Amino acid sequence: MKKLLLIAAVLLSGAGLYAQSKTTGVVNLLTGMTAKIDLNNTTSTATLTFTGPSDRWYALQFGSFVQGDGMHAGKDVVYYNGTTLVDAVHNGVGIAPSTDPINNWTVTSNTVAGGTRTIVATRAFNTGDTNDYTFVYADTNIDFAYSRSATASFSLAYHQNNRGYAINNAFSCIAPDAPTASAQSFCNAATVSNLVATGAAGATFNWYAAATGGTALTGGTALTSTTYYVSQTVDACESARIPVPVTVTTVAQPTASATQQFCSEATVANLTATGTGTINWYAAPTGGAPLAATTILTAGNYYVSQTVGSCESTRATVAVSYVPLAAPTTSDTTQDFCSGAEVSNLMATPMAGAQLHWYAVPTGGAELPGDMGLATTTYYVSQTMGGCVSERLPIEVTVTAVPGPSTSNETQAFCEGATLADLDLNTTAGTTLKWHLAAGGGELPATTELVNGTAYNATQSIGECESPPQTINVIVNPIPATPGGNETQQFTAGQTIADLEISVFVGATIKWYMLNDGGDLIEVGTDTVLEDGGMYHVTQTINGCESDMLMIMAQEQLGTSDFELKSLVAYPNPVNDVVTISNNTTLSEAAVYNLLGQKVISQKAQGDKIEINVSKLPAGSYSIKVLTANGASASLKIMKQ
């Protein structure tokens, strides 16, 4: 037999300064057949991308050889067998390769397009398997040897001329990811050295004026408002560039009224200007030192700038004059409030340093106190500053009163588990209902469970306006205990539910239930005739609150055949998986019932033991009804853990 596989050897040398990846790039082998090796120094992982015909086997071997060298027996080889990439050892001419016990290649992709199969697989540099070739990141090149089937077949056979070598395929670095950098802003004389980017540890950042081409800018290059581009170099390999918008800002003048008037002596502290930095006032358009805040103003021009960081804007001119005090301003001359609002809630804007005064009349009258309640009417506001009193500004006010919720029963009773949503309350359409404790505290959700003896306040709101509260006192009655009684009770033919023995509280209302054919519990009368094996459920109700159910299994007292089950036992009990029912006579059937009386397991038997698997049942108490071959019956209780 001719050689079945050719051999590829990986020869690696040289190491980068930083953890990085490098690749051979795609190496053309035969028509439609290529190989590429990527080495990741960070993860010590080799990635093979191997293409070939989709209808036949093709292979690579790793080892050390020269062009025209023969294949190396006992060396690592990988080949596609029609299903996956096989990790094997070449055994020489005419002998099939030996498959490694562990395939250390992990195929991450196996796709076919246009008759060409592309396999991507990864493997550790050193697998620890002596059959596997060890990749070394420091190597600078790699040799490939290759072969493929001469025919469309995955059966290993002579490759004929479909073989060859690719020697000294050099590794080149895989460019790192581009760095990250956000848009950056500077004031005045910033340079490239002020730009900031984030990338790989130890990376060198390169800043450019263009997206491609050109040379890197020096650190001293002055910045302008434009887009710069940054890459990073790791291990002499440069990444792609990303754009970084840069804004170089010359600080704008602050905003200030060009004319500012006062009615009495004022100081620099009374001047107003707004900006994003520190405001500076001067007596000249250029030069000089900023004026102290206590400097007394005279009629004439003053000049204002702002400082942001180390940059100061040019100065704006403000003409100062002394005139009577103007009325205060407001952004809303028609103001809406909820009932309970006070004069202190009215809104107007005074001049800096001025005090507001509110009145019920346009002139004269007494000043209104801040805690005086508002009404739907017109109010008037003036301002004073330094002994100056302004004209009054009218403000039209509308006060909205929200009606409170109501109830015909301010003391309401419920059973345990009731919530605020269960309270009986009349509300107004279009309002939002809110609940609070009458004793105070934050808003309560409607799902809040009621507490006995607690008073709750209900309000309703429209927009931001909330009504007076409606108080409801709550009585929460406890749910009575489950009725007492034996869970298995015997009866004689003709007896009814009334003959079952239970214990309840004095005055409680008793209700009996049974399962109908649809599996639903329905209430039944005490005159219902008992049935052997029947499940009967009983509750007691006090103050309208119904207890949990007691389930009673009724057993009819039969003849002497029932003595056949006198030795009936169930073990283990409690049980996790399998319970065994044992008796001294032949058993025919056993059925397991839950607390609702529903049959959950039924099992036939032909001996004196029955094993029932209850592992899938939820934990809890269950009843087992057992029948003998002679028709006798008895019940047992078990506890499933």
UniProtKB/TrEMBL annotation:
Q: What is the lineage of its organism?
A: Bacteria, Pseudomonadati, Bacteroidota, Flavobacteriia, Flavobacteriales
Q: Which UniProt keywords apply?
A: Signal
- Taking every annotated instance into account, which residue ranges of this chain make up the domain Ig-like? 176-249, 253-324, 326-400
Secretion system C-terminal sorting domain: residues covered: 571-634
Q: What is this protein called?
A: Secretion system C-terminal sorting domain-containing protein
Give the range the annotation lists for the signal sequence.
1-19
Q: Which domain of life is it from?
A: Bacteria
On whether Signal is a keyword of this UniProt record, the answer is yes
Keyword Signal annotated: yes
Q: InterPro entries from the xrefs?
A: DOH_DOMON, Ig_7, Secre_tail
